[in-house]
Amino acid sequence: MTEARAEGFYKVCVKVYASEAKVEDDAALFVPIFHEWIRDGAFDMVMLDVADYAHAPDSPGIVLVCHEVSFSMDRSDGRLGLLAQRRTPVDGTPEDAVARTLGHTLEVAKKLEADPRVSKVLKLDVSKVRVESNDRLRLPNSDTGYAAFAPVVTEGVRRLTGSGPVVSRIANDPRDRLAVEARIS
Predict the structure, then answer these.
(1) Per-residue b/e over 100-137, b at no fewer than 16 CB within 10 Å?
(2) What's the pLDDT score for residue 178?
(3) Domain total in the chain
(4) Which stretches of the chain score pLDDT less than 70?
């Protein structure tokens, strides 16, 4: 197996979970909101399309496809949450990729929760986030991968929030993406 290395790494996913969710129909709720965001240019990014995978169990759900980062109301691990998946490199370091992706995630979460159609049925817990390596070549789901990934996540979160998170590895199938939980104070 090759040695894990974070250099050149930018493929990161960030998920904030719903602490409360009374969403009965993902498509009916999120599709119109995401389309409005595209139409209104709600974020400073290139927003392209909306995809509906809500019919499939444990799926990415409703996806807002953007050039830089795609966002979804994800249920792929059996829990509803807002998942951001970085699609393009960032200028800077792997830590910058984590900080920017987390920043986008928190920005979208805040706007989503502020929407009156959502505020009564969904609350996202931003005090702990799941951060995944979406690059199994550079950062495989192994002890070596974790040893390289944890400091990147710690520093990326610190750069955005100003305080160091408590980072712990999430036990999952070795064939899955390397995942950590970052508790943010």
Answers:
(1) bbbbbbbebbeebeeeeebeeebebebeebbbbbbbee
(2) 97
(3) 1
(4) 1-2
